[in-house]
Write a sequence for this structure.
């Protein structure tokens, strides 16, 4: 669970201190954050608060926004995050399998996993696979894959010892992406316009313009599908234009695909990656399987790298091995085995895909229902974007003030830029959520 | 034009290459004394019985959630793992100045510690602080600290090849001569690769100098329990340093003593001067973890935490660890006895004086080559053997091979 405390852009220019205490705030609180304009945002993760709690601004004039409980996992209709029965069954089988040899795993992870997830991403008949020019390595979650890819780029990109970026990230994106590239030595990070608040979607014109103006050989981080945190994706036609610019300006695509299958379909979600590969671009893609397998805690991630020629394969692989050794020596096996088992077995594969499709349909239904309820309430504004977006995340498009109102006044918690996890909405709370949004929009 | 056209092929890691060569060897008498993992007397890897039991409990526990762990890891794992190193009654624990970060194995713990030190130790972003690692040491030590940005990773005297023991005067000399605030990576017990540990008196001398010269203590503890069979005995050095008031890091690995090699279970224990310092240190480590692996994997940590927090399971685990340590001690005793019985030239006391998984046999590179090529006994070029590779079935052959090698090859 993420929780964020943010200083408003128009707050006074002094030190703001936020404290938390239990109950109704009569007791002196424990300071948990100090904010000023030079450091206006603090994120907490894994920070457990047992309600009821009260946040107090003990210093400064504010306003300070508290947003949080942004849950980044898929939540079922009953409000629980559960592991699919198939996965539990497989875990039990693996536990009691006497043929599995314990011992250190290979630095690049389970080869069966790599084989299957590369096929999943690129399509079994991808020429890149057939021509053996795909390097795959298991990594510790999506961020681990990004870190590993960044380390490889930093050290070996185009033999230029002084190359250190820039890296272009979409605005908005996961708030640790910049830090991850920076930790790998690629501190020259900037943002390209992605989410357009006015049109409540992605404006491909802005994306293209920013990419056209980026220095050649920049690395561009692209969300393949189900963009976090807005849920807004480029269309197929948009992607064709983006790919063309990437090609023309020799930009390097670094895809994030942490929920393949969770937005539209397994093939459609991977289409942008496959298209770039098909026109001859070299790409990296960071994948993870938390959402689609319910295996969040196991941090099953993967980095794939498509090279122009297979003659580079062994060298790149050997350098990845060296980098892995200095990060985590070898990745954890537990979750990887489960994913590999499912993807290698036709019957399991079908059962799993159906399960994922069920989640996807529920998310789509919630979006439709929310849009419909807002329409019925006569909520001013446009709400079509709710159903245009896909996947787990959704950017409603509210102002900072409206978001704060939802949290403080209605106990509906969002991120400051008004994004939320669609699966957190269910039959029991959807009316309340819709009414709250309506209230926020009409009273502020 | 490929972005990767200039990427050179990296040299393979020696110990993995050795294993690969062993695998490809068709000779029926082949023996692998290079592997860095425990093997039973049947040359098989061993899933500890307590681990099997706990895994079953975990898989069958419907109430367990499968969510991301907190960034710093599973709280009950971190605290119980730190207590294993420091002792339940450690004053530092009682004074709330011990914290920990769950990491991806011992490597991950070293990584997070190194990244923290580079950013916040001895100034801000000071990459020139000297990092001292023993000569020889686990080869990955160099790489982890170098990759974290440190530009000056140096050896300190440790192994005396002539004496086949600890080069104490060299070690102490390096401590005296090191720039103040240098970081020293110390092996808590069962030194890898030599198997040679300082005695308690020698540790006291080391600690005295480190205190006086403000040198930073970074313990690498990958074999606790595995060396003597007793957890407390193997933690003596770490606990002694704590008792002397040092602030320090201890990178713990549970790969060997739990047999959880591929689950990547490690813990970076932080001993600080006071709770306030500890809190700020952990907050910075959290930021480092967030951009390295985000949150650590849950499976292995749950197994260890469940075991350590249950008195019966904890006892069972200690027994399992003793089983492994005892087998190693038996192989040491038998190997030495057989070499003496064969009248193999040279002294072989070091086989039983050394401790833990590894032994520096003293074989030179030519002799090692002979062992590998002619006798199909695989060991590291340094002469390091893994005692766990010895079994009652192959020990005669290995002893004879060493005898033949030493007499034929100089």
């Amino acid at each position: 669970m993420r929780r964020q405390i943010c200083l408003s852009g128009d707050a006074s220019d002094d030190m703001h201190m936020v404290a938390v205490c239990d109950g109704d705030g009569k007791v002196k609180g424990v300071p948990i954050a100090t904010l000023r304009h030079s450091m206006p945002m603090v994120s907490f993760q894994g920070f457990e608060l047992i309600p009821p709690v009260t946040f107090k601004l003990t210093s400064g004039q504010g306003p300070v926004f508290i947003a949080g409980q942004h849950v980044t996992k898929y939540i079922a209709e009953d409000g629980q995050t559960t592991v699919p029965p198939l996965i539990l069954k497989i875990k039990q089988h693996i536990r009691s399998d006497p043929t599995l040899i314990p011992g250190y795993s290979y630095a690049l992870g389970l080869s069966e996993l790599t084989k299957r997830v590369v096929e999943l991403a690129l399509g079994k008949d991808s020429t890149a696979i057939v021509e053996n020019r795909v390097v795959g390595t298991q990594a510790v979650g999506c961020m681990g894959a990004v870190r590993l890819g960044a380390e490889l780029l930093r050290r070996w990109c185009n033999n230029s010892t002084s190359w250190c970026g820039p890296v272009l990230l979409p605005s908005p994106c996961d708030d640790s992406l910049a830090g991850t590239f920076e930790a790998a030595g690629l501190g020259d990070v900037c943002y390209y316009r992605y989410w357009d608040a006015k049109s409540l979607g992605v404006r491909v014109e802005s994306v293209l313009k920013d990419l056209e103006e980026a220095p050649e050989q920049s690395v561009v981080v692209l969300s393949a599908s189900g963009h976090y945190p807005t849920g807004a994706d480029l269309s197929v036609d948009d992607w064709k234009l983006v790919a063309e610019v990437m090609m023309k300006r020799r930009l390097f695509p670094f895809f994030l695909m942490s929920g393949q299958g969770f937005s539209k379909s397994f093939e459609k979600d991977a289409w942008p990656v496959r298209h770039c590969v098909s026109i001859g671009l070299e790409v990296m893609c960071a994948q993870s399987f938390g959402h689609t397998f319910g295996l969040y805690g196991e941090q099953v991630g993967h980095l794939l790298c498509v090279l122009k020629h297979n003659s580079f394969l062994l060298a790149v692989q050997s350098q990845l091995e060296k980098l892995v050794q200095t990060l985590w020596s070898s990745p954890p096996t537990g979750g990887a085995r489960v994913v590999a088992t499912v993807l290698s077995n036709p019957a399991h594969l079908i059962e799993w895909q159906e399960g994922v499709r069920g989640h996807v349909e529920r998310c789509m239904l919630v979006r439709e229902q929310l849009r419909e309820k807002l329409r019925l309430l006569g909520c001013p504004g446009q709400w079509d974007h709710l159903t245009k977006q896909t996947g787990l995340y959704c950017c409603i498009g509210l102002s900072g003030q409206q978001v704060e109102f939802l949290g403080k006044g209605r106990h509906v918690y969002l991120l400051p830029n008004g994004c939320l996890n669609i699966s957190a909405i269910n039959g029991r709370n959807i009316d309340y959520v819709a009414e709250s949004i309506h209230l926020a929009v009409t009273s502020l | 034009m490929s972005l990767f056209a200039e990427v050179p092929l990296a040299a393979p890691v020696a110990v993995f290459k050795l294993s690969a060569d062993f695998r490809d060897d068709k000779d029926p008498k082949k023996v692998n004394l290079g592997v860095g993992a425990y093997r039973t007397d049947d040359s098989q890897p061993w899933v500890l019985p307590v681990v099997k039991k706990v895994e079953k409990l975990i898989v069958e526990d419907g109430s367990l959630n499968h969510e991301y762990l907190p960034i710093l890891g599973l709280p009950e794992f971190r605290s119980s793992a730190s207590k294993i190193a420091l002792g339940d009654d450690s004053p530092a624990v009682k004074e709330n100045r011990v914290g920990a970060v769950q990491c991806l194995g011992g490597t991950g713990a070293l990584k997070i510690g190194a990244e923290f030190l580079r950013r916040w130790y001895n100034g801000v972003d000071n990459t020139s602080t000297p990092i001292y690692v023993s000569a020889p040491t686990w080869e990955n030590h160099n790489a982890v600290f170098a990759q974290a940005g440190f530009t000056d990773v140096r050896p300190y005297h440790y192994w005396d090849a002539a004496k086949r023991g600890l080069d104490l005067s060299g070690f102490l000399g390096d401590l005296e001569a090191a720039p103040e605030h240098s970081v020293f990576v110390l092996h808590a017990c069962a030194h890898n690769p030599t198997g040679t540990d300082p005695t308690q008196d020698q540790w006291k001398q080391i600690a005295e100098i480190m205190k006086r010269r403000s040198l930073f203590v970074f313990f690498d503890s990958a074999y606790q329990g595995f060396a003597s069979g007793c957890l407390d005995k193997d933690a003596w050095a770490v606990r002694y340093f704590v008792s002397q008031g040092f602030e320090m890091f201890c990178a713990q690995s549970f790969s060997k003593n739990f047999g959880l090699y591929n689950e990547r279970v490690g813990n970076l224990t932080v001993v600080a001067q006071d709770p306030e310092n500890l809190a700020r240190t952990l907050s910075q480590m959290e930021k480092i973890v967030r951009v390295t692996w985000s949150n650590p994997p849950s499976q292995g940590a749950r197994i260890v935490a469940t075991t350590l927090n249950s008195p019966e399971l904890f006892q069972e685990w200690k027994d399992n660890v003793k089983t492994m340590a005892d087998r190693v001690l038996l192989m040491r005793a038998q190997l030495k006895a057989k070499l003496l019985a064969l009248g193999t030239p040279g002294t072989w006391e070091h086989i039983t004086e050394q401790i833990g998984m590894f032994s520096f046999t003293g074989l030179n590179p030519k002799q090692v080559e002979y062992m590998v090529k002619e006798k199909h006994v695989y060991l590291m070029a340094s002469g390091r053997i893994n005692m766990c590779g010895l079994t009652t079935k192959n020990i005669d052959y290995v002893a004879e091979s060493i005898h033949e090698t030493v007499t034929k090859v100089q």
